[in-house]
Design a protein that fits this description.
Elements lengths: L21 H9 L4 H6 L21 H7 L8 H13 L1 H8 L7 H52 L6 H4 L1 H28 L4
Helix pairs in contact: 4-6, 6-8
């Protein structure tokens, strides 16, 4: 009985992308969106165009930040901003209502816009980071598949041309490293499965 052919679900590689033009536009308008294929075409944001961290910034160890800073719950961030707005709105009567020992209301006036700007910047930076990580992931996949194709040709031809093994030594080294990592991954998965199986 003849076996059915299976189709690959991988996104098309750069060399198999459809040509631009009227027919390509018509296909794009009717076919489901392939975000990986679309993202593969996007230009990469260069590091020189990304603002650097402020001069003088020194990252604080996470354990020290955890020890010294308060950490309002994520769900309370919006409420925190509204509370600051409330204090700012009562600036004229603040001292008479809460006395001289209450914190300086000028802090609220400084913190409110700073927090708003920081939130906008964090969200913009996170979106850019997510974009760049995906573009890098796609490019790394494309490079790996390209080199796999080169490896197959080197292996196929090196019997007649032994010098290819030296000429493409790094290509073959990567292929060997990938094989070892796959083998090790399979072994770890098997060990984990065997370890979780109860003894009879």
């Amino acid at each position: 009985m003849p076996t059915k052919k299976t189709t690959s679900k991988r996104s098309p590689s750069p060399k198999s992308l459809p040509k631009s033009g009227a027919s390509g536009k018509a296909a794009a308008s009717t076919a489901p969106q392939d975000s990986i294929a679309e993202n593969r075409r996007l230009a990469v944001v260069k590091a020189a165009s990304i603002p650097s961290v402020p001069t003088g910034f020194v990252p604080t160890p996470s354990d020290e930040r955890l020890r010294r800073l308060s950490h309002p719950a994520e769900a309370l961030r919006a409420e925190l901003l509204l509370a600051l707005d409330e204090v700012i709105a009562r600036k004229a009567s603040y001292r008479s209502e809460l006395g001289d020992l209450a914190p300086d209301p000028a802090q609220a006036e400084a913190l409110r816009p700073r927090l708003g700007t920081l939130r906008e910047s964090v969200e913009a930076a996170a979106a850019l980071s997510a974009c760049l990580h995906e573009l890098e992931e796609i490019a790394l996949s494309d490079a790996a598949e390209f080199l796999q194709g080169v490896t197959e040709e080197v292996v196929h031809r090196q019997a007649k041309k032994p010098s290819l093994a030296t000429a493409y030594a790094r290509v073959l080294h990567i292929a060997e490293q990938r094989r070892q990592l796959i083998t090790e991954g399979i072994a770890r998965a098997k060990d984990k499965k065997d370890g979780s199986t109860p003894s009879p």
